[in-house]
Structure formats: C-alpha cells, structure tokens
Specification:
- The protein is of the alpha+beta class.
- It is built from four helices and five strands, in the order E-H-H-E-E-H-H-E-E.
- It has a single domain, classed as Heat Shock Protein 90, CATH 3.30.565.10.
- Strands 1-2-3-5-4 form a five-stranded antiparallel beta sheet, with helices on one face.
- Keywords: Kinase, Serine/threonine-protein kinase, Transferase.
C-alpha cells in the first residue's frame, strides 16, 4: 500500500491542448513533493500526459469540456486521478500493444500511446461512474539512489 497525503491537491482545467502544460506542472509538483526519482517522475508524467491528451483529442473531440486532476503524494509515491465527462472510454480496452515483428513504419496508427501510458505506471484502474470517466494511476517511489534532494 502506498502511503499518501490525506487531502488531495486538485486541478480543474478546460479540456484543451493549452491546458496540458498546467496538468504537467501539477504532476511535476506532486512528484517533487514525494521526492520521486527522475525515472518515476518521467513515468507518471508520461502516463498522465498521454491520457489527458486522449481526453482532449478523442474524448471531447475539440468540443467543450473539463478535466479534473486530483493528486496525492507521499514518501512511497504519487497517485493521480483523472476525471472527465467525455463519452465512456476504458483505456485498458483501447490499449494496443505493438505487434511483434512488424516494423514501426508498417504498424497501424493509434493505441500505442495508451499502451505506453498504462505500462509506465505501477497501478492503473478505470471506472465509469455517474457519467464520468475516472482513471487512477499510481507510481511508487524508486530506490533512494534516484531520489530528488529535499526541497528547501
């Protein structure tokens, strides 16, 4: 079980490409607060960025919408919850691992980003509740040799 702060940090942004930077900064602040190493920080940022981008591009399809990001951090890692009201989409069902033996230039476009996102986190769950897509991602802290120094 990952030990995390009791009260989550919350960010709510419009579902636009321009808001992806705010989401990334939010994730990076949580990772720094948890003193995640560079590898764990990269993995959680990659996963959240990929899922948020998919919400904007494919969920809302450029239409009006909001993305809510809740985050908790602690000495054991970071947990991020991403919520939206776009049409139902379970990333696990939409995940396409790369087909073995086929060169990248001959592979079908799409689905690989979700695969990378979900395989980069330690835990992932999806539920559809009350008209909302709710994705929960957890990255555990790595060994102490890769931990960021304490913040002043």
């Amino acid at each position: 079980m990952v030990e995390l702060a009791r009260k989550p940090a919350v960010l709510e942004v419009p579902a636009t490409l321009g808001a992806l930077g705010e989401i990334a900064e939010f994730v990076l602040r949580l990772a720094a607060r948890a003193r995640l190493g560079t590898g764990a920080t990269y993995r959680i940022r990659l996963a959240v960025d990929e899922l948020a981008t998919n919400i904007v591009m494919h969920g809302y399809r450029g239409g009006e919408g909001r993305i809510t990001v809740l985050g908790r951090s602690g000495p054991d890692g970071v947990r991020i919850v991403i919520e939206d009201t776009a049409p139902a989409f379970d990333p696990v069902a939409g995940r396409l691992p790369p087909p073995p033996g086929i060169p990248p230039e001959r592979r079908r476009v799409g689905g690989l980003g979700i695969h990378l996102a979900l395989t980069s986190v330690d835990e992932y769950t999806y539920v559809r509740r009350d008209g909302r897509n709710i994705s929960t991602l957890t990255v555990k802290a790595e060994g102490t040799d890769d931990v960021c120094p304490p913040r002043p």
